Amino acid sequence: xxxxxxxxxxxxxxxxxxxxxxxxxxxxxxxxxxxxxxxxxxxxxxxxxxxxxxxxxxxxxxxxxxxxxxxxxxxxxxxxxxxxxxxxxxxxxxxxxxxxxxxxxxxxxxxxxxxxxxxxxxxxxxxxxxxxxxxxxxxxxxxxxxxxxxxxxxxxxxxxxxxxxxxxxxxxxxxxxxxxxxxxxxxxxxxxxxxxxxxxxxxxxxxxxxxxxxxxxxxxxxxxxxxxxxxxxxxxxxxxxxxxxxxxxxxxxxxxxxxxxxxxxxxxxxxxxxxxxxxxxxxxxxxxxxxxxxxxxxxxxxxxxxxxxxxxxxxxxxxxxxxxxxxxxxxxxxxxxxxxxxxxxxxxxxxxxxxxxxxxxxxxxxxxxxxxxxxxxxxxxxxxxxxxxxxxxxxxxxxxxxxxxxxxxxxxxxxxxxxxxxxxxxxxxxxxxxxxxxxxxxxxxxxxxxxxxxxxxxxxxxxxxxxxxxxxxxxxxxxxxxxxxxxxxxxxxxxxxxxxxxxxxxxxxxxxxxxxxxxxxxxxxxxxxxxxxxxxxxxxxxxxxxxxxxxxxxxxxxxxxxxxxxxxxxxxxxxxxxxxxxxxxxxxxxxxxxxxxxxxxxxxxxxxxxxxxxxxxxxxxxxxxxxxxxxxxxxxxxxxxxxxxxxxxxxxxxxxxxxxxxxxxxxxxxxxxxxxxxxxxxxxxxxxxxxxxxxxxxxxxxx
Length: 703
Hints:
By secondary structure, this protein is of the alpha+beta class. Among the domains are: 83-179, Rossmann fold (3-Layer(aba) Sandwich); 189-232 and 265-280 and 458-511, no CATH class. The protein has 14 helices and 27 strands. The strands form five sheets. Strands 15, 16, 17, 18, 19, 20, 21, 22, 23, 24, 25 and 26 form a twelve-stranded mixed β-sheet that branches. A hairpin with a 5-residue loop joins strand 21 and strand 22 (600-611). Helix 5 (143-152) runs parallel beside helix 6 (168-180). The protein starts with 23 loop residues before the first helix and ends with a strand. The relative contact order is 0.11.
């Protein structure tokens, strides 16, 4: 019998492997030690710890930065190509040959024109600076040549008209250059810095040369040295006897003292670079700091125990007061009695005494006043011509919003074009605003990575003030006449004082140049009734500093969460929260607002409360609805949400019986943070009374 043989179209199955899977060892043996690139990188990354990863990332950033700096240093040197600068005029009234004549400074270096003798390019060699520049330009109106030369230029120098800046042609040229891309820009005032010498008397506390100096209205600076010249106005003038005639004596007056000041100059202190305070105001964020680890059960239990211990406070309350009501009752001094509030007592008492004196004086003035009938003024016809209708309309709208906020606090309407789950996705519900937990380190904004925070602000303040009281700080003593050498000061500072403004400088305490979150307690000034909305730009006078910022308003309570206020109310003291440099209390606070006419109006006064980024300002929104159908403790609520299909109707259960005239409210909360709008420059207000101020102009040494 012949055996059956399969044809060429028979299906061929894969052989069976005997039930054994290919393991990692066999794969490595077959690969003979070769690993894929991704596998190798993942293995190395897994073996590195978090500290090593952060150190490795820091090294890579440092290497890239050094490589960029090395490339920039080589540019224009003897080993690199010349520093090519493209000169572009942006107005038809600008004379390019005249601009090139100003750039061809023979005192700075040697000028070599190009071989064609054209005035559109030249080489500037400066052996003293060990640098060389090649200035070039294109024909006016030749846009394509400008774009081509901008691609290879190291810097572009734009020439502007002193009156109009740039014309339509220059604007079109800028648009094309911005779209193509511009090279790196330079620090334009680098050659406009110098050493400012300030002479005067030391007041308050001893002055240390290693501390920073704050010039009001111009910022913080470092000092090089402190000199002790002869006092130009001594009580007992120095008497010099004549060598020829011993009976004759001559008194040195103030003018003679100024002449001999350089002769009797004595250097008190010179700055020590290792001990000198840095000008760094912000923290450079590290992207690796964003990595977080989940806390263990032991850490969570310890945190809960610590929270319970710190939350127990003994208070004296009236009989019949519940525990919930007791939490909102302040102590006799107006605070919750926690640690670190002792330095606010004297400041708060003085503040309350001033308020009571002001109220008493106002009542006396009202009693002395009489009612007088005045006829119509002849200037009433011109009143409407001076009124800004647009500003009046905005003010009316703000008055309406403030009135609605008083009648229906925190109540908002659900938008119809956006789903409520999207509009309020950052909000959450709380069972109790007072007792519900909220982590102060949760979902912090990116700006919080730029600020400084103390581990214990109260202890740091106490230690610094103790060193000052015990005279542990070396420096110029109070009452000495000294000359301060302030380094890296712009020429604009001297030009400002040459116009007659007084020069006022303060020595900063340690850490007072660093940015953090400041909380201030303020009360509305009685003479100002204009509505002030949160996040409006205001002018702050906080201690010795003056700056602009857009603050948040919140209630001044003893709880760990503080409700956000949309307007600065007139009947309650509120807390103002801003990003600003650290200031140690006590410090007075004045809030001004710049009007449309340029004048500054005082709107609130108060004092500095704390420097605490962990103080939580919670914004509340209230959604309202009306019962549509009621079934004892169940009801269908409408007008709270608007959805297709159900029309926004929602079934709700309550702990009590609902009535048809009741309104259903839903409270939602989210934490809000101030905006980073800190600006140390404050524009000068329009003076109330025109007057001339005479003052001594400081001396400036250019370096």
